Amino acid sequence: MAHSTPLVEVAAAVIIRSDDHFLLTSRPEGKPYAGYWEFPGGKIEAGESALQALDRELQEELGIQIKQAYPWIKRVFTYAHATVRLHFYRVVDWSGEPFGCENQLLSWQMVDNLSVTPLLPANFPVVRGLALPSIYAITNASELGEEAMLHKLEQALQQGLKFLQIREKTLTRDRFCWLASEIIQRARTFEAKVVINSDILLSQELGADGVHLTSAQLMSLTSRPDVNWCGASCHNAEELYQAERIGVDFVVLGPVLPTVSHPGLTALGWQKFSSLIRDCSLPVYALGGLVQTDLAIALQQGGHGIAMLRDPWLSK
């Protein structure tokens, strides 16, 4: 669809401290939406890459220089005065201490406790995406056994796991419900999010945080299920497009590497993974044959993080 206003390319920084606070800045007087809060950044000039533009803008606006930044998501948003394509980067290391070089206000914020208002409309989905941890674990009771799965889960939660999907295709419904209830109860103690694979009604009945759609489910839906968190499995550009169209919160894309569970599937490889998600507006987890040490490469390729079936439950 053609844009009625020119498309302005903008680089935006999600500057994240080690304590998970992120930086918002207020728009100065004289600019559209003056007084609104946003992620810092600015227009990409001719001949600049998005990252070069971001580094320049952050030096001009905040007096800091990027040392480590990861490409993240892109979002197109139409305001009254312009249509912008925002190239978001997660900036995790920088030199200097941010201050308002243009007399703008700065505020370090937490996802679950936003204290500044109003926020620019384009930024609401971005803040929501920041609530998703970089590690997404998938249960594996079919290999470990139910009691061992719960024991491994306790260990992982104690070590900081905050997000998991219950996916157990071989259990009877009764056993699945029992296991899911036990998992949800344990996760609550550690304030970890739990989604259930494919069963929307059951996720609501058991009080899970949401549902993870299969790719077949995703392609059959015309709207996002009415749950708090909704993820989806994708394997190609068509499925990614559908996930964006119905507005799920995140997707898992794979297999990136060859996997034990799907030996016949052709792996995408990191280059294809990166290419598929280059313009994606949703956080994307890499899946398939991955271990914790693959997180760095997933982030470098534009991924939100990694999803894993076996590695989270190995004895550490």
TrEMBL record:
GO MF, one term, reads: 8-oxo-7,8-dihydroguanosine triphosphate pyrophosphatase activity
InterPro entries of this UniProt entry? Aldolase_TIM, MutT-like, Nudix_hydrolase, NUDIX_hydrolase-like_dom_sf, NUDIX_hydrolase_CS, NUDIX_hydrolase_dom, ThiamineP_synth_sf, ThiamineP_synth_TenI
Q: Which reaction does it catalyse?
A: 8-oxo-GTP + H2O = 8-oxo-GMP + diphosphate + H(+); 8-oxo-dGTP + H2O = 8-oxo-dGMP + diphosphate + H(+)
**Class of enzymatic activity (EC top level):** hydrolase
Classification via Gene3D superfamilies:
Aldolase class I, Nucleoside Triphosphate Pyrophosphohydrolase
Q: What region holds the Nudix hydrolase domain? A: 6-134
What does the record give as cofactor? Mg(2+)
Q: What PROSITE patterns does the record tag this protein with?
A: NUDIX (PS51462), NUDIX_BOX (PS00893)
Give UniProt keywords alphabetically.
DNA damage, DNA repair, DNA replication, Hydrolase, Magnesium, Metal-binding, Mutator protein
Query: What Pfam families does this protein map onto?
Result: NUDIX (PF00293), TMP-TENI (PF02581)
Kindly list the biological process annotations in GO that this record carries: DNA repair; DNA replication; thiamine biosynthetic process
UniProt-listed Enzyme Commission number(s): 3.6.1.55
Give the superkingdom in one word: Bacteria
Give the family this protein belongs to, as stated in its UniProt record. Belongs to the Nudix hydrolase family.
Q: What is this protein called?
A: 8-oxo-dGTP diphosphatase
Q: Which organism is it from?
A: Nitrosomonas communis
